Amino acid sequence: MPLIYKICPLPLWREAEAAGRLDGAPVDLADGFIHFSTASQLAETAAKHFSGQDNLLLIAVDETALGDALRYEPSRGGALFPHLYGPLPLSAVRSVAPLATGPGGGHVFPDSIKG
Fold this sequence. Notes:
This protein is an alpha+beta fold. The strands form 4 sheets. A 3-stranded antiparallel sheet has the order 1-4-8. The protein has a 3-stranded antiparallel sheet with strand order 3-6-5. A two-stranded antiparallel ribbon has the order 2-7. It is 21% helix and 35% strand. It is globular, with a radius of gyration of 13 Å. It holds the Pfam family DUF952. This is DUF952 domain-containing protein. It comes from Methylobacterium terrae.
């Protein structure tokens, strides 16, 4: 199963659990889609948008469960990033794990993430 990933602040995830769906972070709502990353894009996404932030979760999502609402579109440097046009149904989530911060302030991704 192909997975895509969302880095999510814990309070936003708690709201999603209560609602049964994730509508997105403020940047997602402003852009009109929910931003995701592939495994190979995660480290750069974390460094660019979440540097120095704690209390984050790494949400793994089965991209096939999202259907036509998921589109890969050019973003940073022309790389194709997964964008979800609509809310993320929690039924598509395959795992939720804390995203640790390492000694240098960068985020530490699980060994299971192959980039």
